[in-house]
Specification:
Shape: globular
Helix content: 40-55%
Bound molecules: acetoacetyl-coenzyme A
Structural class: alpha+beta
Radius of gyration: 21 Å
Oligomer: single chain
Strand content: 15-25%
Number of helices: 10
Distance between the termini: 26 Å
């Protein structure tokens, strides 16, 4: 197995790191406080090709690979987890399923705007009563000849307040459960579609997380994504891809917390010497370094499997996401501990990182769901 990044991957990593430190780090605390969706920096990122990373150039994308997309999510999340997940969602939860499952007409109609940042994208799977169990969703889509009528409310939708293109899941035949779910592409201006409550979250606060309401929402027939009844497979495959990027988000936040802790430990003097010289601080720095590196390798393994054309990488994506989630929560806890009282204050970025970290254990499948996927694979 080759652990080295290609020249192109290194070039993209360095470019994104420079951009993130210059443009995103200075506003990360501010948007965490204000909850403002960072449209202007996202448009700059789109100009660099970061909004349609794996989408072929003929549809306006950058035509790069999935490992590069993970590296991008990592570098952005290292300084700002909100920008990190907005990027992951636009790329792998909206543009990717439209590219992978869409018709040529759908690709041409929706992908250029998602890649250029003219429109941002989101996905609507979760509902108030259907989180870990997406097959328990209650949204319905009734066939009315040349269109469907959708009714239901989606919850906890990242990018929701500012997205204009949505991939939404609903039951065309609720009796059939998994085999009766379908996917649709919905424009924000479709009749009967509206944005609901904007959530006030603990972390990733600038992500426009909100409810989406479909009240007799009219969706043209040509906006069915994939086959009628094929929606559950669209959900599961799309989540396999995006779990790699959420794992990368965990790696990025971990690396950011580690970098901040190394700097702080070398500067902070107690008992007449920098605290970096104390072995209990070194113990934490060693654990943080080892866990972050291990999580990164698991993320790269899953990304490179997808790049190599593997049909199923469900297990590897779940392992990467699970391990990165446990890592980022542990690493940011240690980062706050190293910073002591200062780490508990908004004056230092590790306070925000600790809050941002927790969501990695929850969204895109909780750690418990990842363990179910991993164990089912082991026991098969
Ligand atoms: N790829 C393709 N097909 C898959 C699949 C995969 N990864 N996983 C399952 N399937 C297929 C199965 O083969 C099966 O097909 P057949 O009926 O043809 O045999 C069908 O789907 C049903 O599979 P299961 O019986 O395994 O389904 P299940 O109901 O037991 O669910 C689960 C499995 C893994 C627990 C799944 O429900 C799950 O992943 N839950 C978590 C949901 C989640 O991650 N939500 C995140 C929301 S999005 C989000 O968080 C975005 C954000 O905010 C940033």
């Amino acid at each position: 197995m080759d652990f080295a990044l290609t020249q192109d991957q290194k070039m993209v990593r360095d470019m994104v790191r420079e951009f993130a430190e210059k443009e995103l780090e200075p506003i990360a605390a501010e948007i965490d406080e204000s909850r403002e969706f960072p449209t202007s920096t996202l448009k700059k990122m789109a100009g660099l090709g970061l909004m349609g990373v794996v989408i072929p150039e003929k549809y306006g994308g950058a035509g790069l690979d999935f490992t590069t997309l993970a590296i991008i999510c990592e570098e952005i999340s290292r300084v700002c987890a909100s920008h990190g997940v907005i990027t992951a969602v636009n790329n792998s939860l909206c543009a990717y399923p439209i590219y992978h499952f869409g018709t040529e007409e759908q690709r041409k109609k929706y992908l250029p705007d998602l890649c250029s940042g003219k429109k941002f994208g989101a996905i609507g799977i979760t509902e108030a009563n259907a989180g870990s169990d997406p097959a328990g969703m209650e949204t319905t889509a009734v066939d009315k000849g040349d269109h469907y009528v959708l009714n239901g409310t989606k919850a906890w939708i990242t990018n929701g307040t500012d997205a204009r293109t949505f991939v939404i899941f609903a039951y065309t035949d609720p009796e059939l459960r998994h085999k009766g779910m379908s996917a649709f592409i919905i424009d924000k201006d479709f009749e009967g579609f509206s944005v609901g409550k904007h959530e006030n979250l603990m972390g990733i606060r600038a992500t426009g997380n909100c409810e989406l309401i479909m009240d007799e929402c009219i969706v043209p027939k040509e906006n069915l994504l994939g086959e009628e009844g094929g929606g559950f497979k669209v959900v599961m495959h799309t989540l396999d891809v995006s779990r790699i990027d959420i794992g990368a988000q965990g790696v990025g936040i971990s690396q950011g917390a580690l970098d901040a802790s190394v700097k702080y430990a070398q500067e902070r003097v107690q008992f007449g010497k920098p605290i970096a010289e104390f072995e209990m601080i070194q113990d934490m720095i060693a654990q943080m370094s080892a866990q972050t590196d291990a999580a990164r390798l698991l993320v790269y393994r899953a990304g490179s499997m997808k790049d190599a054309g593997a049909k199923r990488f469900t297990r590897e994506a779940a392992i990467a996401k699970y391990f990165a989630a446990e890592t980022v929560v542990a690493v940011t806890r240690m980062a706050v501990q190293i910073h002591g009282g200062n780490g508990y204050s908004k004056e230092y970025p590790v306070e925000r990182m600790y809050r941002d970290a927790k969501i990695i254990e929850i969204y895109e499948g909780t750690s418990e769901i990842q363990k179910i996927v991993i164990a089912r694979n082991a026991l098969r």
